[in-house]
Amino acid sequence: MGADRAPGPGAEYVLDRLGSWVGEHLEGVGFSGKPGEVAVVPTAGGIGYRWVVMVGVGDDPDPETVRRAAGAGYRAAPRAEHLVTTLHQLPVTGALAATVEGALLAGYRYEDYRSKPSDRPVPDVGLAAPVPPGWMDTVERCRVVVEAVNAARDWVNQPPQDQGPADLAASMSALATEAGMTVEIWDEKKLTEEGMGGIMSVGRGSHRPPRLVRMIGPGEGPRLTLAGKGITFDSGGLSLKPAKNQELMKFDMSGAAAVAAAGVAISRLGLGVKVEVLAALAENMPGGGATRPGDVFTARNGKTVEVVNTDAEGRLVLADALSLGAEGSPDLMVDVATLTGATAVAVGLRYGGLYGTEDARRMVAEAAETAGERVWPLPLPPEYRKLLDSPVADMKNTGGRWAGGITAALVLQEFTGDVPWAHLDIPGPAKTKNAKHYLAAGATGFGVRTLVELAVLMERN
Ligand code: BES
Ligand code: MN
Ligand code: ZN
């Protein structure tokens, strides 16, 4: 990767010189080329670029390694206005897309709430010749995907005082309409009429009433329904979270952001699937009207739930969204949610936990692999269902201390009918504390790329 070209020699000339230049200077900078390694080397102008950014990819890189290297190189480039990369020339399947995605993703910043925006220019990224045939189409496709990831990041990063359920619904609707989707927003009156008892139960304690956004894409083909948990802020409700645990709870609408953004990308790309997105939006607050531990509600599919802990709210909004989704008998239904701390305890901060019926899980795992997002399967043992038995209703909303991610998924399963279904629990990877490779600190947009790849997979099969 070269940074900030001085006026003068063209890219071919520079690349020609670059090979030998890097060869001569490798030893001097002690660069071993391990994945994640970055070295910024001033050239004193000798080869037409002021800096060379060297990024390691190891001996046998996969596309995600290339994506991360492109992002790391981009972020390391010192105050450059122009970057020219050679990473797309690596003999790696999908190297071009990975390079473009990595660099574009790394250009994301969230600065709406800074008094002074950063004075660091966002560099242009050029691809050094030679580029493969059809490269412009690949770049355009990557641009659509990255714009969707960045839309999800914007929604998630937005401070919660300025983004209640109605605000988020309007914002999602605007982007979806532009992408050619048809959109309905269900307000609290419609939600009540339609029997959405779970969403209403969660939203009751907030001055800002809940919403359901339903968006349907223009494509034709196999039917994919995406449901997302959209808690614009999770205080825990009357089962109030301790202060420390509330700090990051504006992120609790990451699942809804991911499914809405993915629906937009799938529609803009014209993929051959019929996509339906259901974003279940509510704010979980402990106001005077709030649901109490011990309250019982009836979900969209007629099942009753005893709320023993109001902080287990994501499964309640998803209960209605999944019920509604299952009514349409799609070929595949996937939900995405920052559902449980327990899943993060099980698989850590960098993996999503993947639950669901076997074929659905397999497809989502394959899509995630292609997209370079890390997920890991977890079981849904029927024998654990009894942990949810309630003395008064069809089920309780929590299953006790053990296997919290699994018992949460078992609650969801009660609302999926016989539809092939996968559930992606992303408490860890939805956000990152520190910037790294193509990630800025804050929201990551995790899940968007996997869902787009999933649509590609369904289109193909
Ligand atoms: N939104 C949280 C889950 C969460 C926790 C996401 C930490 C990201 C980081 C969810 O609504 C929640 O509070 N879950 C409870 C469930 C419990 C009350 C059964 C949890 O995980 O502790
Ligand atoms: Mn909660
Ligand atoms: Zn939550």
List keywords for this structure.
5-stranded mixed sheet; 461 residues; 37% helix; binds manganese (II) ion; 18 strands; alpha/beta
C-alpha-based Rg, rounded: 23 Å
- Please summarize the sheet with the most strands: 8 strands, mixed
Helix content: 25-40%
Mean pLDDT level: 95
Low-confidence stretches: none
What characteristic shape results from the CA principal axes? elongated
Ligand roster? ligand BES, manganese (II) ion, zinc ion
> What fraction of residues sit in β-strands?
15-25%
Number of helices: 14
Description:
The radius of gyration is 23 Å and the shape is elongated. The protein has helices spanning 11-29, 63-76, 95-106, 135-157, 165-178, 188-193, 197-203, 243-246, 254-268, 314-327, 341-347, 358-371, 404-413, 448-460; strands spanning 2-5, 38-42, 49-55, 82-85, 124-127, 182-186, 211-216, 223-234, 274-284, 296-298, 304-306, 332-337, 352-356, 375-377, 395-396, 421-425, 431-432, 442-443. Strands 6-7-9-8-12-16-13-14 form an 8-stranded mixed β-sheet, with helices on both faces. By secondary structure, it is α/β, with parallel strands linked by helices. 37% of the residues lie in helices and 19% in strands. The two termini are 38 Å apart. The chain has 14 helices and 18 strands. β10 and β11 (304-306) form a beta hairpin. The model has no long low-confidence stretch (mean pLDDT 95). The structure holds ligand BES, manganese (II) ion and zinc ion. Manganese (II) ion is lined by residues 234, 236, 311, 313. Ligand BES is lined by residues 234, 252, 309, 311-314, 338, 340-342, 398, 404, 427.
